[in-house]
Amino acid sequence: MIFMTLLKREFAQLLRSGHGIIPVFLSLAGATILWLRFLMKAEGTAETIPALWGLATAFGLPFLAAVAASRGFTQDRETGMMRLMFSTPVRARWWVAGKVGAAWSLCLIYLVGMGITCHLFFRWFLPEDAQVFVSTTGFLLAVAALILQALLWCSIGTFVSLFSRSSASTFLFSLVSCLFGPPIVILAFSYWTGGQNMQWPWIPLQTMVYDCASGFIDMRLAVGCVTVSAVLIYASGIVFDALRVCATER
Amino acid sequence: MLQLDNVTFLYAPNRGVQEVSLNVEAGEVIGVVGGNGVGKSTLLGLIASALVPQSGTITLSLDGMGGRLRRLKSNDGIGYRRHVGYLTESAPAYGELSVERYLGFRARLHGVGMFRLRRRLNDALMRCGLNPVRKEAIAALSLGWQRRVALAEALISAPPILVLDDPFAGIDATQRQAMAEIIQDVASRSHVFISGHDPALLKACCTRFILMEQSEVVADNLDAETAMARLTPKHVKKEADE
After folding, report:
1. Alpha carbon of B82: minimum distance to chain A alpha carbons (Å)
2. Cβ contacts of residue B87 below 8 Å, gap of 6+?
3. One digit per residue, pLDDT tens: chain B, 242 residues?
4. Which residues of A are less than 8 Å from B115 in CB distance?
């Protein structure tokens, strides 16, 4: 009940602000251009449409999540709302879940937008003799992987927003964390477990989307996404409570 | 009864609140007075549970089921915070929302159920004279009206503890008078804490004063005249005497 109240409120506020619809359109435009380029260059290869679509879509998500999260707690801190939130009878984890949920919902709008873009444009731009096939299951798996990925980006952005004092710095830190955090963690994990894949995992989550769409599902990454997101949401709740103790809400 | 027992919260040496002990009965309106930076807002933040005491306890005793006394501590979290209405110094609000929607949202967060919501909302709007602007966006209102919205928000859950941090700041004389009347109206049922710098208005609202200096409560149970006399700077007093 409280979560839904907060989610509705945060989402409505996000949509009305400059951190809502405009970034969605920018991300859609960027990802669509990228996808069309992928399509046109895919002539004669064995690449599939869902995989290319997923890969292009995945590039817009960190940007969008970072913009959405840059409102997060940073704006509450700027407006002095944080102190009022502290004295409101709502658990810290619900505040955090509301923020993450609102940013995540915005990412879902973007995914729906990319789905529509895909259906509208891909037949026009696809070379006639291209050896490609369209798999509905592939699309669904790509979307599922993207949804998990979006949850991770939004959790990272919200966590960062608790520490930052301006929207601009939150955006930058979120973006940097989204782009470089997961590769570093995955590389460190691979090193620690003595894995065989020791090459630099530039965009492991994008690759997950790509692989899912092609029919290869790496459950470790999917579970990793959900686990890290849950840990970040939990940690954000602890940090929120700690701010009350440290009185650094201003 | 609200009991503060050796409550301390220091940002830095002599900045914050140090070893404050108070006993406040329901119906008392406490004027927290003192110069700038002596710890008034910190003390009110602690009472409102927006800050957690570094040491000491704040306990609210309420009549529970079957006449038993129910004790809630400020660091217990939600249980205590349900009983607090807080008007912060900056009186923030979601400016794009209408007065009605904002108050409805805040009431739901305070656990006001769906069936009581409409009645509580209408009551708060009427009490604070907000009916003429109930459909208007908060950002479009003047500062005085925005303060009234913040006061209505503090009142909407009918809390036993009402904490008003400088409620008269930045508003004109008419609005101040109206606000003072609203506070007097709700004072009988709650433990009310008000900080401010306007002696006449505080005198009109408060039944008891505490004076703060350098993070400490230096005088308690002051009457209005004594508190105002202690508040007036020495050079002003000297000029007035001459």
Report:
1. 5
2. B147, B150, B151, B153, B154, B163, B164, B165, B167
3. 888 888 999 888 778 888 889 888 888 899 998 888 888 899 999 999 888 898 999 988 887 666 677 888 888 778 889 989 999 888 788 888 899 999 999 999 998 888 888 999 998 898 888 899 999 999 899 888 888 899 899 988 888 899 998 888 877 787 788 888 888 888 877 889 998 877 778 888 888 888 888 888 888 887 777 777 776 665 455 555 55
4. none
Q: How many domains does chain A have?
A: 1
Among chain B residues, the shortest Cα distance to A15 is held by B96
pTM: 0.85
Angstrom distances, CA of residue A92 to CA of A29, A73, A87, B20, B95? 36, 12, 11, 28, 23
CB pairs under 8 A between A and B: 63
3-state secondary structure A95-163: HHHHHHHHHHHHHHHHHHHHHHHHHHHHHHHCCCCCCCCCCHHHHHHHHHHHHHHHHHHHHHHHHHHCC
Of B49, B92, B105, nearest to A87 by CB-CB distance is B49
Smallest CA–CA distance from B97 into chain A, residue: A13
The DSSP 8-state label assigned to residue B75 in this structure reads G
Question: Domains in chain B, please, with CATH?
Answer: 1-83+160-171+191-242 (3.40.50.300)
ipTM > 0.90?
no
**What is the pairing mode between strands B84-87 and B216-222?**
unpaired
The per-residue DSSP string of B171-223 comes to --HHHHHHHHHHHHHHGGGSEEEEE-S-HHHHHHH-SEEEEEETTEEEEEEE-
DSSP state of B65: G
The boundaries of the domain holding residue A154 are 2-246
